[in-house]
Design a protein that fits this description.
The protein is an alpha/beta fold. The protein has 8 helices and 11 strands. It has a single domain, classed as 3-Layer(aba) Sandwich (Carbamate kinase).
Length: about 240
């Protein structure tokens, strides 16, 4: 079967690489993520990835203890690079050529983010991991994912979460939570569903970039999504 999308941006939380306790980097989890990316690449879909840092550092925790917000956010950006390097290693070990680009220059370990270079890598079939967020404090990695997806002309932003779709409340604690198959951007904003921050959703809305929210750990959900099957929650106009 042919894929519906030629180029996607996959937004992963830092917890995607965490062990059972939810902290740190578990190499076996990185291997599992890499295997899922490989299955998407088997359909010749170009894959860019933005990954968070919640498994290593949460800036909000530092702020709650009196830390300067910009300092806390910069620490989070560095943590995303650690996750990016771990994932790159897992991808390279299964034969996928991978490049890490960072919004903060650290030339000894990664390329600086250059939009056209990232696009060229994707066109060559490389997986591109985009680290360090936007390079600016006060912006989340969700916003970084939306921004990078627009910049590289991705056809869809796929946000990986712990649950299989968007709900009106936490389905893990509320068995009566309402599940949404589709939402408009304005619905997502007005209902304050917390699936992504408002800046990220607005960026997608302004650039007509659809967002698909799904649980990548569910059976074949990522593959089914790129083939155009109904999976998770689709957010669009």
């Amino acid at each position: 079967m042919a894929a519906k999308y030629k180029r996607i941006l996959l937004k992963l939380s830092g917890e995607a690489l965490a062990g059972p306790e939810g902290f740190g980097i578990d190499p076996s989890r990185a291997d599992q993520v890499a295997a899922k990316v490989q299955r998407v690449r088997d359909y010749e879909v170009e894959v860019a990835i933005v990954i968070g840092a919640g498994n290593l550092w949460r800036g909000v925790d530092g702020v709650h203890h009196g830390m300067d917000r910009a300092t806390a956010d910069h620490m989070g950006m560095l943590a995303t690079v650690m996750n990016a390097l771990a994932l790159r290693d897992a991808l390279e070990r299964i034969g996928l050529t991978t490049r890490v680009q960072t919004a903060i220059e650290m030339k000894q370990i990664a390329e600086p983010y250059i939009r056209l270079r990232a696009i060229r890598h994707l066109e060559k079939g490389y997986v591109v991991i985009l680290g360090a967020g936007t390079g600016n404090p006060y912006f989340t990695t969700d916003t970084a994912g939306a921004l990078r997806a627009v910049e590289i002309n991705a056809e869809i932003l796929i946000k990986a979460t712990k649950v299989d779709a968007v709900y009106d409340s936490d389905p893990l604690t509320n068995p009566n939570a309402r599940r949404f198959d589709e939402l408009t951007y304005m619905d997502a904003l007005n209902m304050r569903l917390k699936v992504m921050d408002a800046t990220a959703i607005t960026t997608c809305m302004d650039n007509d970039l659809p967002v698909l929210v799904l649980n990548p750990w569910a059976s074949d959900s990522l593959e089914r999504a790129i083939l155009g099957e109904k999976v998770g929650t689709l957010i669009r106009h």
